[in-house]
Amino acid sequence: MEAETETVVPMAMETEQREIINNVMCLLTDPDGTPLGAPMYLPQNAGPQQLQQIVNKLLNNEEKLPYAFYISDEELLVPLATYLQKNKVSVEKALPIVCQPQAIFRIRPVNRCSATISGHGEAVLTVAFSPDGRQLASGSGDTTVRFWDIGTQTPLYTCTGHKNWVLCIAWSPDGKYLVSGSKSGELQCWDPQTGKSLSNPLTGHKKWITGISWEPVHLNAPCRRFVSGSKDGDARIWDMALKKCVIVLSGHTLAVTCVKWGGDGVIYTGSQDCTIKVWETTQGKLIRELKGHGHWVNSLALSTEYVLRTGAFDHTGKQCSSPEEMKQVALERYNKMRGNAPERLVSGSDDFTMFLWEPFVSKHPKTRMTGHQQLVNHVYFSPDGQWVASASFDKSVKLWNGTTGKFVAAFRGHVGPVYQISWSADSRLLLSGSKDSTLKVWDIRTRKLKQDLPGHVDEVFSVDWSPDGEKVASGGKDKVLKLWMG
């Protein structure tokens, strides 16, 4: 793409003025480092607003899109001249400026508890909003799964059938099912509209369930298959239409701790045997092994996770009329999110480190991410894939560049281990829940605490920010579910 430098500089400017002002050679790139055009000279007094116009023009965007601009991971909020002076940057070679498209919509930060709903008889171990953000489910140590009415902020259905603690739950990306897994190793599938069980318990795992992930809706609609991981060392693929296990993925020598069904159709499993395995899903063949961690792998995150979770649902609330339409819309959203870059994977471990992988490109990690002083409990990509956040037992939340894996910032404020994190749909805010009984909201642009949310009287085990951005749910040891609003 040829970039005309002439269009950038106002013609009326005097020649000698041009000499003085127009002397920063810049290279505008997308987040993956691909240049948007040839290097160009920009006026030193150009700031983010002028850059917005230039990028929209370069990319021929009919709709003017908002962008944020980053120079070596720091957002440019001032004119170039101010930045160059402050950071004493040499202008001998082209200055790389990363242009990151921003969500057109903005999510309001949550700042108050709108409801404290009791009902569970034991600790709330897991909470999750449906893909459209309109429904909410939770799993508890009291062996039940509950659906909650967000409108009236009251319990809707109590689902019984598990014999032990409900450790994990997962909504199908079309919103039609919720699957729950328990400490006894059985899985149950529920109809969110009625709260009724859709089959007998799905049995096969010999120990407790550690993770559940659905096949993305852009690969298969209506949703039928999901994968479960267990402490017994196996992962299993289940088919809801057949109501049985169709493939067993065995090969790990210790517990499987996390499972993710990727957008390219493969399954990733992380394990206490320190490896991550990549499986194809027609016969369950092992296609790649990712090695590098020196201790248990605790958490996996995909750069496309948000669009995989939400499928065809977006912030506009538009409904699809058929599974085919849903599949098509989901595919468009997935392709747009992924761009030309491969799907990225981040793993967090008990060895205090994280790795960034591009499993389709190489079996070797792209980079090793170090800095945590204790085990990494949870890793999560922002919806736009620009950031990775990590929660650790060292009481901090850390922010990393989602493309390069470079460390960006540490968020400190929790006084206990951080168990779980969740992103706002516009990727501008990050939520964390901790053993210290608080939730905290962090502002990604200022890298500061935006909101402190006390209210739970004991450890917060699970947090989720609804995909539509309207609300946050949290659950913990105090047996209550809390809803938070902006």
From TrEMBL:
One of its GO terms (cellular component) is nucleolus. Residues 24-84 form the NLE domain. One of its GO terms (biological process) is ribosomal large subunit assembly. It holds the Pfam family NLE. It is found in: Nucleus, Nucleolus. The keyword Aminoacyl-tRNA synthetase does not apply. WD repeats lie at residues 117-158, 159-200, 202-240, 249-289, 369-410, 411-452, 453-486. Keywords: Nucleus, Repeat, WD repeat. SMART domains: WD40 (SM00320). The keyword Repeat applies. Belongs to the NLE1/RSA4 family. This is NLE domain-containing protein. The lineage of its organism: Eukaryota, Viridiplantae, Streptophyta, Embryophyta, Tracheophyta.
